[in-house]
Amino acid sequence: MAAQIVIFEEEQKRLQEICDRLGQESLSKAIFLLDKNGQILVESGETAQIDVTSLASLVAGTTAATSSLAKLLGEEEFPVHFHEGKRDNLHLSVVAEEYILTLIFDQRSSLGLVRLRVKKATERLVEVFRDLAERQASDPGNNMFGEITDDDIDNLFSDSF
């Protein structure tokens, strides 16, 4: 499991713009970008009627289970999953090995359109994550928790005020 990533405002805006655009271009109802731990990074579209926390946890769990199935069959991973329902469909894809792009779409769209638009959006998302990794690697001072020691934590919670 990778370390927690800190996403800065600039990258957050870029991720949000990519997901908003993907929602419009793919005619999807809702878009979610989350990490493999189930933490939501971006949500876009018609999300008010969705239990977002449960959805994120279940998507992360489904992706982990599918990854285990892939390994069982000798595959590294199944990076794309599609679930078809009577009313809504769910498209999941792994992005940059650590993130899951989730689209909910209905009859207004098609699987072909979603796959095409996801492919293009994934390229842009990977670029943002690559830029973010380079930014953090080139400036370790950006890691706001990097210089906190165990002694600092002990002092923070000590009884002596």
Explain what you see.
46% of the residues lie in helices and 19% in strands. With 161 residues, it is of the alpha+beta class. It has a single domain, classed as Dynein light chain 2a, cytoplasmic (Beta-Lactamase, 2-Layer Sandwich), CATH 3.30.450. Strands 2-1-5-4-3 form a 5-stranded antiparallel sheet, with helices on both faces. The radius of gyration is 18 Å and the shape is globular. The N and C termini lie far apart (38 Å).
Main attributes?
19% strand; alpha+beta; 161 residues; Beta-Lactamase; 5-stranded antiparallel β-sheet; 4 helices
In short, what is this structure?
The chain has about 160 residues and is α+β, with helices and mostly antiparallel strands. Helix content is about 45%, strand content about 20%.
Report the sheet-strand fraction: 15-25%
Radius of gyration of CA atoms, rounded to a whole number = 18 Å
Percent helix, as a range, is 40-55%
Q: What do we call the CATH topology?
A: Beta-Lactamase
Order of helices and strands: HEEHEEEHH
Record the strand order, biggest sheet.
2-1-5-4-3
Q: Give the beta-strand count.
A: 5
Mean pLDDT: 90
CATH level-1 class: Alpha Beta
Please give the CATH architecture.
2-Layer Sandwich
Shape: globular
